[in-house]
Design goal:
Elements lengths: L2 H20 L1 H16 L3 H25 L3 H22 L7 H10 L2 H14 L1
Length: 126
């Protein structure tokens, strides 16, 4: 794995931790209220709890896929970052800086050296 790709994967792994860390208090309250709502049969509570579970599971799966040379993971990671940044800008645009490592990771994972490595990994799997 080229150094550029390795740095991109490390930044991609660090970005969700940074995003969740900056918003832990807000996320905690929302999940607690959602669980309480779910206990009382509210549909929105289930959606929020399901979304929280997805946000806990999806990034680690994408990081493993990125580090093993799965090209589709770059697109999925970029889509996840774009959706997250759009949601963040709707809530509090002042915290968009927490997405900077993710944006840098996307750029590094799409540079020519990274593209060549992902293509070589794809050819090796066939």
């Amino acid at each position: 794995m080229p150094v550029i790709t390795r740095i991109g994967v490390v930044l991609a792994a660090a970005a969700p931790v940074l995003v969740i860390g900056w918003q832990a208090d807000r996320l905690y309250v929302q999940v607690v209220y959602a669980i309480m709502g779910l206990a009382f049969g509210e549909t929105l509570g289930g959606v929020v709890v399901g979304g929280a579970l997805a946000l806990a599971v999806v990034p680690p799966v994408l990081i493993v896929a990125l580090s093993t040379g799965r090209g589709w993971a770059r697109i999925a990671y970029a889509a996840l970052v774009v959706v997250g940044a759009a949601a963040q800008s709707a809530l509090d645009a002042g915290l968009l800086f927490v997405y900077l490592p993710a944006a840098v990771a996307i750029v590094l994972l799409c540079l020519p050296a990274s593209n060549a490595w992902y293509e070589k990994r794809a050819d090796a799997r066939q």
